[in-house]
Design a protein that fits this description.
Order of helices and strands: EHEEHEHHEHEEHEHEEEH
Radius of gyration: 20 Å
Number of domains: 3
Structural class: alpha/beta
Strand content: 15-25%
CATH class of the largest domain: Alpha Beta
Number of strands: 11
Strand order of the largest sheet: 2-1-3-4
Length: 249
């Protein structure tokens, strides 16, 4: 019997997957599978030849989200399903999760069809502290900037940044910068077979002078540890809301 074929979808700038995933093909071979690494928007790839296609290092989806979603809907036996990636690839989902009771960072949304003036953008920024401007569709820190509300030059840069994104037809998010991130980083909980397996902590990306309009920023993993009881309870709360939301779709 031929080994099942598993295609690992990546982007052209990571043709051999991200460095963190370098061991994945060998791990699949050890389990009797035939791994193949393919670029998601390569027209020569026969996606129907795979028993399963897994989205991995597709860090450029934000530059062509419509094309990415069209591809996802065309691929048979895709993990995760296209509808879930469509929802998860646009951060407007935060507003929906907030409506369902999850604590989310308060966000001001600047929509391109509103055609905001510079003054209108200015009035929608926080009056004090640091804040973040980023597009609702982004990956790897692309298009993200951290600014200081009481610094006129920084505030002017933030207005320019938001205007640039909206001229490109992108929805913009404005959020207060949470100083806790500088101390504890960003925490993710990884689930395997429906159970929390471990947590991953990443260093804060947005140092005070951070600016990014189009480039991708690397996310550095600080450590991987078993999920604590507190993290488990937090993860279960999020998972419950997500399952209810997805089941309603």
């Amino acid at each position: 019997m031929a080994a099942p074929i598993v295609i690992l979808a990546t982007s052209a700038d990571l043709p051999n997957l991200d460095a963190d995933e370098a061991g994945l093909p060998d791990a699949l071979r050890e389990r009797g599978m035939e791994p193949r690494i393919e670029v998601w928007n390569d027209p020569s790839v026969d996606w129907g030849a795979a028993d399963l296609t897994v989205v991995r290092s597709v860090r450029d989806y934000a530059t062509d989200r419509d094309g990415f979603l069209a591809w996802a809907n065309s691929v048979p036996r895709l993990l995760n399903q296209a509808s879930l990636m469509e929802w998860n690839s646009d951060k407007h989902y935060l507003a929906e999760l907030g409506e369902r009771g999850l604590p989310v960072i308060p966000t001001t949304w600047l929509e391109p069809d509103r055609e905001f003036s510079k003054h209108q953008i200015h009035t929608r920024f926080p009056a004090h502290g640091d804040f973040v401007v980023k597009p609702a569709v982004s990956s790897g820190g692309r298009g993200t900037g951290r600014y200081t509300a009481t610094d006129p030059r920084s505030r002017a840069e933030a207005i320019k940044h938001a205007s640039h994104e909206m001229r490109q037809g992108r929805s913009v998010m404005v959020q207060r910068y949470l100083s806790e991130i500088d101390r504890s980083g960003e925490l993710s909980i990884v689930y395997l077979n429906g159970l929390p397996a471990y947590s991953v902590e990443k260093k804060a990306m947005l140092h005070p002078r951070f600016r990014s309009v189009d480039e991708v920023q690397d996310e550095t993993v600080v450590e991987s540890t078993p999920a604590s009881e507190k993290e488990f309870r937090w993860g279960e709360q999020i998972r419950s809301v997500l399952h209810d939301y997805i089941s309603d779709k």
